[in-house]
Amino acid sequence: MKVKCAGKSHIGMKRKINEDSYLIAPDLGLYVIADGMGGHRAGDVASRLAVETMADYWRKVQNNEKPSYLRPIEKEVSEGAKHLINSIFFANTIIHEAQKKPQYHRMGTTVAALLVEKDCVWAANVGDTLVYLLDNGRLVQISEEHSLEAEQKSMGLSHLETSTNPLLKHMLTRVLGLSESVDVFISPIRPDAGDIILMCSDGLTNYLSEQSIQAILDDFSLSLDRKVDVLIDEANRGGGGDNVSVILLQVLEKGKWRKFKKKLKL
Question: For residue 108, what are the CA distances in angstroms to 8, 101, 158?
Fold first, then answer.
């Protein structure tokens, strides 16, 4: 599958440091956003460890030095998807071990990752860093949100008072680093040519509505890079109370670039 990509991270309007980290690695087919938590407890260190660990893992996979599985993966997914899950397991272990240092105690991070294969894109996540698909102008959430509010809604336990409580939305039920093991959500995406996949930290979704996000992504007058800029600018204009990171992948038509180069005699 051929894709083009654009991405950026911004500190936001109110934070002193950027605790988000991101990876764009087309050579690995890997794209990652990690949103560190803890502030003074080194959330930026946790997010950076997650991204660096996953990148190192996938370089080993590319070199046919595949790391062993930390635990059995019984999900019916491709081998690549299993390694994507395992790379997140490794990141969790590295961050958990780093907490032995007092300055890193109780640090953690959310993570979302995309792995591009020949016939699909695998989306994996832990926490509230989310993945969406813009499919024929319709924005669909692919990832699973691991917050108390989201899990109450999935069980049908939410009501008007709790659903509008911001404390419940920001109370995460899964993150990397706080426990020895972590449960990773994963799902395949089989987009058509022209579809856009959005991965973002909650600094975007907390300050920009899904309707606004959809309108920006569906604006054909904007390049992919410009869409990233506009999403971040609008989140900052909406309050900018958190770091905001955005990665966009757009699926290309098969052979389109080859025909274009031939026409230009490149």
Answer: 21, 13, 27
